[in-house]
Predict the structure.
Amino acid sequence: MHGYQRVEQHDWRHPLRGDWIARLEDVLLQRDVERDGPVLLVAHSLGCLLVAAWAAHSRNTHRVGAALLVAPADAEREELRSVLSSWSPVPGQSLPFKSLLVGSGNDPYCSAARARAFASAWGAEFIDGGQLGHINAESGLGAWPQGQALLRYVGGERVESRPHQNQ
C-alpha cells in the first residue's frame, strides 16, 4: 500500500537465523544506496531479532539509516525455544543505526519487560504501545497511522512531536 519492499524469506514455517540473515543481506546489497539513500528497515516479531542478528554480523550496516522494530518475539521463551532454536541467544549488541522499538503490554510472544530489555540492549528508543497484543492484524489497528508516523520519526522526518502509539 505504501510502496515498501518486503523481504521474502525462504521458509516462514521453519525460520533459520542464518538463512534469514543471508536473505536480508542479499536484498540490502541489491539496493542502490548512492542513488536512493540508506534503507529504513521495518521489522515485526522475529524480524526484530533478524535485524539485531544481521547488524551483529554484517559489514553493510551503513546501508541502513534507521529501523522501526515492532512487537519483537522472544526466542528464549520456553514455549518458543523448540521452534526458534537457531535464534537463541538473542543478540545483545547496540544497533549501529537509529532505532525505535514498539512493545505491547500484553504481547503473548514477548513480555513488556523483555521488549524494554531488547530496546536497551540494542540502543533503541522504546515506545510503550499499550495493550495491543502482538501488534498485528488481530490488534485491529487497520492501516496503523501511528506506525506510519513512527516510521517517519525514526527516519528523521520532522514531526510536530515524538509520536506515541496509544494516542
Summary: Helices lie at 17-30, 33-36, 46-57, 78-81, 112-122, 145-154.
